Amino acid sequence: MKFQDEFRDRGLVQNMAANIRAMAERLTHPVNFMEVCGTHTMSIYQYGIRTLLPENVRLVSGPGCPVCVTPIGYIDKAVACTSDRSNIVVTFGDMLRVPGSRSSLMEERAGGADIRIVYSPLDAVSLARNNPERRVIFLGVGFETTAPAIAAGILESARQGLKNYCVLAAHKTMPVPMEILTADPELNLKGYLCPAHVSTIIGAAAYRPLAEKHHIPCVVTGFEPADVMQGIEMLLAQTLRNESRVEIQYSRAVSWEGNPKAQAILAQVFKPCDAVWRGLGMLPGSGLVIRDEYAEFDAERVLALDVPEAAENPACRCGDVLKGKLTPFNCPLFSGVCTPESPVGACMVSSEGTCAAAYKYGR
């Protein structure tokens, strides 16, 4: 049955590819479509989606990997949290090997720091409850997808009265950088494959201001090859009709309004703030900070972290890759100095990073 499904999907993708080529013949100019989801990027590389497209339809990878867009200064703060060896630093796995200015969490763990990997923020809350004599610091990194679970962890800690749990928050929200990139004439973007996981939380309606203000088509797309190809078809159809609106390809998981309960939890614990994105700089209103009511769970306020000014590796081109202005293959460090085993930049570390995807599938 699985073989039959794969055979059917392969035929469906081939038919879509033929339709895209036919539609592309009617274009008066080449088009650049950007995906802003790390899982989309991985799928596009894994299934060779770009090889199925005509030359005048180009896919550009944007800042869709939350670990990759986390600035190096945050990594330095996370490393500083380990200076007190009584602390337990808790993180998702992708953060472990991201290089900071002078060290990484992996190096600190090798040197004796207690750094643990979890799959849920509630696991970190349990650690705090079971180790009342030690401070547990959760590294809160991610987009709107993971932020509600981290907010729920803070609410649960407050309910239990835990005084030894805090979050070093660096959450980002997606629509703002999409607007910034849309306005960049060098990229000349003509459409977005909008992120699916994020959209399950914020809803497809969140992209309407982008489509209406900047006159750019947006399609919320799933992750299977047929999903991505259909999303490209839908963007091309809008382009040929000179339309700019939001459509949902991934209707089996995404709605217009999103997840109201998750949104309510986010609003209860976090509020919007300006945030630094690797490669994009400071973007107004693109981050989330813990509200004053929950200040006792904010590691930035609880801990006195002595962190020198961050120092980027000048040879690393992650910033340009995240902006879609450079492919990994054009980075002089790619697959030579910088590999998954010995990464120089975050884009090679994360399982959703563009450089990691290109290294694993694109070579």
Blueprint of the fold:
Elements (H helix, E strand, L loop, with lengths): L1 H23 L6 E5 L2 H9 L10 E5 L4 H4 L2 H9 L7 E4 L13 H6 L3 E4 L3 H10 L5 E7 L4 H14 L4 E8 L2 H8 L6 E6 L1 H7 L5 H7 L3 E3 L4 H16 L5 E3 L11 H10 E8 L3 E10 L8 H4 L15 H5 L31 H9 L1
Parallel strand pairs: 1-2, 1-7, 3-4, 3-5, 5-6, 7-8, 8-9
Antiparallel strand pairs: 6-11, 10-11
Helix pairs in contact: 1-11, 2-15, 6-7, 7-12
SS element count, helices = 15
Q: CATH topology of one domain, what is it called? A: Rossmann fold
Assign an overall shape: globular
Beta-sheet strand percentage? 15-25%
Strand order of the largest sheet: 4-3-5-6-11-10
Radius of gyration over all CA atoms, rounded: 21 Å
Poorly predicted regions = none
List the helices and strands in order. HEHEHHEHEHEHEHEHHEHEHEEHHH
- Quote the average pLDDT: 94
Question: Which architecture of one domain does the CATH hierarchy give at level 2?
Answer: 3-Layer(aba) Sandwich
Tally of strands? 11
CATH class wording of one domain: Alpha Beta
Q: Major beta sheet, specifics?
A: 6 strands, mixed
| Structural class by helix and strand composition | alpha/beta
What is the end-to-end distance? 31 Å
* CATH homologous superfamily (4th level) name of one domain: HypD, alpha/beta domain 2
Portion of residues within helices: 25-40%
